[in-house]
Design a protein that fits this description.
Number of strands: 2
Low-confidence stretches: none
Structural class: alpha+beta
Order of helices and strands: HHEEH
Strand content: 15-25%
Largest sheet: 2 strands, antiparallel
Number of domains: 2
Shape: elongated
Radius of gyration: 19 Å
């Protein structure tokens, strides 16, 4: 029984590493939302002991949008 638990943990960690490497950390609904917004910034998530401690984003999307607006006004 203990060997099965260890194998499950190893499998889960390998799956986690695969998702991080292939940028599949965000849920698909959030990813679709960001695509729809044409978001070009960064999303950061800090996890400790399996819990999300902090999340945030850098506003690349808004800076790009401000540049687009100012270019149209000229």
């Amino acid at each position: 029984m203990e060997a099965q638990t260890k194998q499950d943990e190893e499998h889960n960690f390998a799956e986690f590493r695969r998702r991080v490497r292939s940028a599949e950390v965000l849920s698909s609904s959030t990813e679709q939302l960001l695509r729809g917004l044409h978001f070009t910034g960064r999303v950061c998530v800090i996890v400790q002991n399996g819990r999300v401690l902090k999340s945030g984003y850098e506003e690349g999307y808004f800076r790009q949008m401000a540049l687009d607006v100012s270019a149209r006004l000229q």
